[in-house]
Write a structure and sequence with these properties.
- This protein has 19 helices and 13 strands.
- It has about 625 residues and is of the alpha+beta class.
- The protein has a 4-stranded mixed sheet, with helices on one face. Strands 3-13-10 form a 3-stranded antiparallel sheet.
- Strand 6 and strand 7 form a beta hairpin.
- The chain is globular and about 125 Å long.
Length: about 625
């Protein structure tokens, strides 16, 4: 009996424990289910809230765009009307100027643009034109991680990690890495190559002119300039082979076939950059050429990287430390590949595959960034300095006088510090003939940018006459008019919410009389006489701004100054052209350029007398 009672007790206890465990399990499952249900409802509610917020932001964006004027006077005018307005006014800068002057003066000069050929995704476009707004956005570019908005075809040509499309820490890393090619040590190393190339450019141009004159003399003498050369093409060739030398270490004398191949590929790719149709023959040829060039450059870079890695390893084995700054300064860089490879090894990421892929995507950008601006601006400099009007003659005389006092064997610091008027000539030419007149940035989903609503620039500068709805109003500097009174009902800030394309337009100010006296006149001294307002200086940004400011800006300016130095070495050297046939015209890319590439004759001490006799005949 006792054993039976014990067994019953055990069975009862086990049953109690089983019921308790089952109850606990059911309670736990119920609690978990309740928690999951609550979490799901909370998440759903959060998603609904987020969607509600996004919908609210989209509605705010619509309201903003509804309040902003368009590029043409009609509300929601559409792409084709805007395109027709662009054609009618002759380009975007004069169209923006016309719209600015037609609007009330308390406006912040921000326009709604229906569509642009260059866009990152299907998002609205807003054109910002106030210099202080643009400067503020540049200052916020790193914080908001604003990448450049480029066509999808650029992505195909350059790769997904090209610096144009990067932002944030990734962009900062590659920019710091590639900026090593602009260090004083690197630029000092490049200087002899630059001077040699620019000397050869002008000697070759004179020889080509002489050959054309001889050919013309045997055929016709009906035109004074039938023996012209196209100066921009001469500069293009010299510039390309110079950059191939100092960037990639390709010597045209030692590797003529490779240099010619790269030049042919670059010209095909350059044409493809402006062809926004990925299926066109022009783009496909450029894409194939780009792939071939990328592989050639990548193979050469890997060779340079291996050399630098061996040097670095040898230094570590011998001294147990990397070379110090003084030792590095004493070593010749040679070319940009070496400088980049050296910086990569020192960063310790020379074996990171993702980093190496990013470098490969950016190698070809070096040539593009250093080529177009220098070629077009140098051509325009020669146009203005050799123009027969008094401004051109006076500027050339002053420039030659500055170079008479220049050292016989100039250093990098000489070019940086002892040529104020040459700097002014370059700045003035960039003002009149900017290569890029606007920059497109992309404000991503969920990001917000707040700009103050500013009063118009007109009240801060000079006398301006504005016609609005047939009514003409004149306001002097410092005066107030009904058009200058800000609307009290408007918010104090203009809030922009992504996704949104920000079109930062600057060049329409460069020829505006409210900021620059006699804006169409070539007057380099305006940059030296202290009369330029701070607002005019803020508006002037031919190389862009912010974290995406042109990486090769200092190299480009150095090449242009060396070019001027080499041109002025021969005080008899001139560029002769017909000012009745050649001028500066509004274009697309570059925005302004000399017509027909500047057909001219380049004459110096050796052929000057013969050319004057021929001109007399």
């Amino acid at each position: 009996m006792m054993n039976m009672k014990k067994d019953d007790t055990k069975t009862t206890t086990a049953a109690v424990f089983m019921v308790a465990a089952t109850t606990t399990t059911i309670a736990a499952v119920a609690a978990a289910a309740g928690w999951i249900l609550a979490w799901h409802q909370k998440r759903r509610s959060s998603n609904n809230d987020q969607q509600s917020i996004q919908e609210h932001e989209r509605q705010e964006q619509k309201n903003l765009l509804r309040d902003l004027p368009g590029l043409v006077p009609w509300y929601r005018s559409g792409f084709w009307l805007e395109f027709a307005a662009l054609i009618w006014h002759g380009g975007l800068p004069p169209l923006i100027q016309a719209r600015r002057r037609a609007l009330p003066r308390d406006f912040t000069f921000t326009f709604h643009w229906t569509k642009c050929l260059v866009q990152r995704q299907d998002a609205p476009h807003v054109i910002l034109t106030h210099p202080q707004d643009i400067a503020y956005i540049y200052s916020q570019q790193r914080k908001l991680a604003l990448p450049l908005a480029v066509p999808g075809t650029i992505h195909l040509l350059h790769g997904s990690q090209n610096m144009q499309e990067l932002s944030g820490t990734e962009h900062f890393f590659y920019r710091k890495l590639f900026s090593s090619l602009l260090s004083p040590r690197a630029l000092t190393s490049f200087l002899p190559y630059i001077e040699q190339a620019m000397d050869q450019l002008w000697k070759s141009a004179e020889q080509e002119t002489t050959a054309q004159q001889a050919l013309t003399a045997t055929t016709t003498t009906t035109s004074k300039l039938t023996s012209s050369i196209v100066l921009r093409e001469s500069i293009r060739r010299a510039q390309f082979f110079l950059m191939a030398q100092i960037l990639y270490g390709i010597d045209v004398q030692q590797e003529p076939e490779l240099a010619a191949r790269l030049q042919r590929n670059f010209e095909l790719e350059d044409a493809a950059v402006m062809d926004f149709s990925p299926h066109s023959k022009t783009f496909q040829k450029g894409l194939q050429s780009s792939k071939e060039t990328r592989q050639i450059l990548w193979d050469r870079f890997l060779q340079t990287l291996q050399t630098v890695q061996k040097e670095h390893s040898s230094n570590n084995n011998n001294n147990n430390k990397a070379p110090n700054e003084q030792q590095r300064d004493q070593k010749d860089v040679g070319n940009a590949f070496y400088a980049i490879a050296e910086a990569l090894v020192e960063s310790g990421q020379d074996k990171d595959e993702s980093v190496l892929n990013g470098i490969q995507d950016n190698l070809i950008l070096l040539l593009e960034a250093s080529h177009g601006t220098t070629m077009n601006v140098t051509t325009a400099i020669m146009y203005y300095l050799n123009h027969p009007d008094p401004d051109g003659v006076a500027a050339m005389q002053r420039l030659r006088h500055e170079f008479r006092d220049f050292p016989a064997h100039p250093t990098l610091s000489d070019f940086k510090e002892k040529l104020p008027f040459a700097d002014a000539v370059i700045n003035e030419t960039l003002r009149l003939c900017p290569f890029v007149g606007m920059l497109l940035l992309f404000l991503d989903q969920g990001k917000r940018l707040e700009l103050p609503r500013r009063q118009s620039l007109w009240s801060e500068t000079t006398t301006i006459t504005t016609t609005t709805n047939g009514k003409t109003t004149t306001a002097n500097k410092g005066e107030s008019s009904s058009l200058e009174e800000p609307d009290k009902n408007k918010k104090s800030t203009l809030t922009l919410t992504g996704p949104l394309h920000l079109v930062l337009a600057s060049s329409h100010w460069y020829r505006d009389a409210s900021l620059y006296d006699n804006p169409n006149q070539f007057r380099p001294e305006r940059w030296l006489d202290g009369t330029m307002s701070e607002l005019a200086k803020t508006a002037y940004c031919p190389f862009g701004g912010g974290v995406h400011i042109c990486l090769g800006m200092h190299l480009a300016k150095l090449v242009m100054k060396v070019n001027l130095y080499c041109f002025c070495k021969d005080e008899h050297r001139r560029v002769i052209y017909d000012p009745q046939k050649v001028g500066v015209r509004l274009h697309v890319f570059p925005e302004w350029q000399v017509t027909d590439g500047l057909p001219c004759q380049v004459v110096g001490r050796n052929n000057n007398e013969n050319n004057e006799k021929q001109q007399t005949k």
